[in-house]
């Protein structure tokens, strides 16, 4: 998957909606609130290498519960469009399919954490695992879209890289969540495909291998019609109550 590219695309979309005078807010998981950001530090800290998958899942869910209750639901009630950089489906993909936790249990916990709130639209940026790892380690040239020598390595090569070198978080520090194997990310990607197949109306898949500007054109083509439709429906509802 292309989880690492989501923040860039979410920011592009947020800025465009703002320019169109749409009341929009951008938040993120894990984090988005004062409590959530503290949980983020715990999850990402390399000092916590012994953290169990169940602990990890519960911490993500706790952060999500705070974000939904403190921020997302109140802002939706005020009429804002809320963009969230990752949400509950990441837990199903990473902790469920990636770590092998029971999906039924995750469903119950996620229902509690989100108060049953589901997004109107989910954009999944899809990327081959090998290319994704190359990008994480600065081996890919996204501005030109060209592959360099490092992109011509085998999956085994990237597995060795992954085991011996960790990516950096947005604080510049090593990130515990980046210390996974190639096989883990392959399971995560397959998990996303299964969720997409089970709910195709809600999901949009965008190929994330082109340069970010090209990817964004695909993102906006998927998202803007949905936002426009939602705004039109809201306007009609308001006029109907006058």
UniProtKB/TrEMBL annotation:
Its EC number is 2.7.4.9. The keyword Nucleotide-binding applies. Residues 7-166 form the Thymidylate kinase-like domain. Keywords: ATP-binding, Kinase, Nucleotide biosynthesis, Nucleotide-binding, Transferase. One of its GO terms (cellular component) is cytosol. It catalyses: dTMP + ATP = dTDP + ADP. GO terms for molecular function: ATP binding; dTMP kinase activity. Gene3D superfamilies: P-loop containing nucleotide triphosphate hydrolases. The keyword ATP-binding applies. InterPro entries: P-loop_NTPase, Thymidylate_kin-like_dom, Thymidylate_kin_CS, Thymidylate_kinase. CDD domains: TMPK (cd01672). GO terms for biological process: dTDP biosynthetic process; dTTP biosynthetic process; dUDP biosynthetic process. It is an enzyme of class 2 (transferase). Belongs to the thymidylate kinase family. This is dTMP kinase. It comes from marine sediment metagenome. The lineage of its organism: unclassified sequences, metagenomes, ecological metagenomes.
């Amino acid at each position: 998957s292309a989880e690492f590219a989501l923040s860039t695309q979410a920011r592009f979309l947020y800025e465009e909606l703002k320019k169109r005078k749409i009341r929009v807010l951008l938040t993120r998981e894990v984090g988005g609130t004062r409590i959530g950001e503290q949980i983020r530090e715990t999850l990402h800290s390399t000092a916590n290498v012994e953290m169990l998958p169940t602990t990890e899942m519960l911490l993500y869910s706790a952060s999500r519960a705070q974000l939904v209750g403190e921020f997302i639901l109140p802002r939706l009630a005020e009429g804002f469009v809320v963009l969230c950089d990752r949400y509950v489906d990441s837990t199903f993909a990473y902790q469920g399919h990636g770590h092998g936790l029971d999906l039924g249990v995750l469903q119950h916990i996620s229902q509690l954490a989100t108060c049953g709130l589901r997004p109107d639209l989910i954009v999944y940026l899809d990327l081959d695992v090998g290319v994704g790892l190359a990008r994480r380690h600065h081996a890919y040239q996204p501005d030109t879209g060209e592959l360099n020598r490092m992109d011509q390595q085998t999956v085994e090569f990237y597995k060795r890289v992954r085991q011996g070198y960790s990516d950096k978080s947005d604080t510049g520090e090593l990130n515990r969540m980046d210390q996974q194997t190639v096989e883990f990310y392959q399971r995560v990607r397959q998990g996303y495909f299964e969720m997409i197949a089970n709910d195709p109306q809600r999901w949009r898949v965008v190929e994330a291998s082109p340069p970010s500007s090209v990817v964004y054109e695909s993102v906006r083509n998927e998202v803007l019609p949905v936002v426009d439709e939602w705004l039109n429906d809201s306007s009609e509802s308001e006029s109907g109550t006058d």
